[in-house]
Amino acid sequence: MSYDAWILLTGSLVGLTCGVTGALLVLRKMSMLADAISHTVLLGIVGAFFVTQSLNGLPMFIGAAIVGVLTAFFVQMLDSSGVQSDAAIGVVFTSLFALGVVLISFVGDSVHLDVEHALMGEIAFIPWDTLNFQGMNLGPKAVWMLGSVFLINILVITLFYKEIKLTTFDPQFAVLLGIPVMFIHYLLMGMISLSTVASFDSVGAILVVAMLIVPGATAYLLTDRFLVLLILSGLIGILSAITGFAFAVWSNVSIAGSIACATGLYFILAFIFSPKHGVLMKKIRNDKFSSSQP
């Protein structure tokens, strides 16, 4: 594959992986928790490096998943203790992220691990960091990492589809049926953590928030069906990656930033032209109703 094709494939995998999992957060009205997790997993990455002295992908995954679940646990604990949910997210988010920044300063220049790299990422460098096996070039590591996380997420959603759906729309009824609501909640947080750390090298922690939230929010305006919403979120993520990459190449600007802007563009279009929830369609229906009145 060509250099541009690898970048496009990586961006599409980011949009697909984050779009599908992020849609679940949008449905659960926990979108800002994605912002918190996307930053606090930095602590997990740094912690994994201090333990293993390696930037190998598996320890990073494990560290990020642990800290992501801890973030959700601490937020839930503070929320149940009477602290407002937005304040709980703010306290946990800033504390764990700041701890990660402090710890990363001890690494210094010994390894390629810094705050700017974790927050901003650089998708243009992805094709050069390849996976080699017995002398064979298997392509960028980011593609394998994102592809693996996507398959894990799809497997989890498939195995726990009914449980995820019930706990999303009616958690009280799910409790009555004996479904482990908190287990499903933390399972989702683990999925978000893995999706976030897999996207670090591509778009960074800041821009991955857009990929986690905006495609799901856009799909929410277009359909009321759960499965269709998940599929649409992934497709919008892919379409955003393609559109953003094309614009970045044409105008010679940041690829990751263009992809994030593309998600916002599609949200605005859905917000205006959505058949059911769009501002324009609502205005047309209101005008028709007003004109039909005597």
TrEMBL record:
Protein's UniProt keywords contain Lipoprotein: no
KW Transmembrane helix (keyword) present: yes
Localization in the cell: Cell membrane
Superkingdom of source: Bacteria
UniProt topology in membrane: Multi-pass membrane protein
Transmembrane segments: 6-26, 33-51, 57-75, 87-107, 142-161, 173-197, 203-222, 229-249, 255-273
GO cellular component, one term: ATP-binding cassette (ABC) transporter complex
A Pfam family of this chain: ABC-3
Gene Ontology biological process: response to zinc ion; transmembrane transport
Keywords: Cell membrane, Membrane, Transmembrane, Transmembrane helix, Transport
UniProt-listed Gene3D superfamilies: ABC transporter involved in vitamin B12 uptake, BtuC
Family to which the UniProt record says this protein belongs: Belongs to the ABC-3 integral membrane protein family.
PANTHER family in the cross-refs: ABC-TRANSPORTER METAL-BINDING PROTEIN, METAL TRANSPORT SYSTEM MEMBRANE PROTEIN CT_070-RELATED
Protein name: Manganese/zinc/iron transport system permease protein
Species for this entry: Melghiribacillus thermohalophilus
Origin organism lineage: Bacteria, Bacillati, Bacillota, Bacilli, Bacillales
